[in-house]
Amino acid sequence: xxxxxxxxxxxxxxxxxxxxxxxxxxxxxxxxxxxxxxxxxxxxxxxxxxxxxxxxxxxxxxxxxxxxxxxxxxxxxxxxxxxxxxxxxxxxxxxxxxxxxxxxxxxxxxxxxxxxxxxxxxxxxxxxxxxxxxxxxxxxxxxxxxxxxxxxxxxxxxxxxxxxxxxxxxxxxxxxxxxxxxxxxxxxxxxxxxxxxxxxxxxxxxxxxxxxxxxxxxxxxxxxxxxxxxxxxxxxxxxxxxxxxxxxxxxxxxxxxxxxxxxxxxxxxxxxxxxxxxxxxxxxxxxxxxxxxxxxxxxxxxxxxxxxxxxxxxxxxxxxxxxxxxx
Length: 327
Fold this sequence. Notes:
This protein is an alpha/beta fold. The chain has eleven helices and twelve strands. It has a six-stranded parallel β-sheet with strand order 2-1-3-4-5-11, with helices on both faces. It starts with a helix and ends in a 5-residue tail after the last helix. Belongs to the bacterial solute-binding protein 2 family. Keywords: Signal.
């Protein structure tokens, strides 16, 4: 875990980068500023994590800039699909004019999005897609491409021969499925790379660590682990460090939690695939307002990913991604 001094340093960096990050998003095509505040609801997958709080802060920045009355809701857990559906319905009853949704399930949210559309309430999805033609715009990353990025970096680190494991979130998660598919397609080009195990740990760091421990106990030698979302990344790196295998087992992670940043700095994680959650929240609200005002909104906005390692983590542009400012 982060020491107090290091966490204080990171929080200071957050503050210094705030003005830069806000300015960067504001320079994108501007949504029209309205004199009467429009009601928009942001519904996250869950709360508490730095990733989702950064999505929220991006949304709040856009709401302030474009005069939007923003409400934010979140279910208690990332696998609480029925709870999230209930929050969408609650927002419709409360009279929201648009919904920005980070969906917990690719299929299950389709019906409630149909309900919103039937009430002329546009839905913008961020981070995670939904299988619904009624979604006006999806703002996030190409998860298949991100999986391939992770695969290429892994091969760079371990070579064309090795034994690896894959750790992910929910087995039914669309994001996880696409990242895993991209990763496996990329490493399939190298017949000397063997996938020993694929495991899923939802949002439970302890369970991720147990999976790592069991894999290593069963197979003895392992050359690399790819962790395909933020929580699994923390669990994997913490266990590798606890086992004294830092640097021996190459770790590729996803996202920029404070824990993962320190693991990257210390060489426990060799590379991270980093998203831009601030832009997802900001553009989600911006395009929700555009849809309300009758503007054409893009069907897909790719907010992009970057592969960050010890060599480039202190580059200015990468610092903005690694240290999205938080409260």
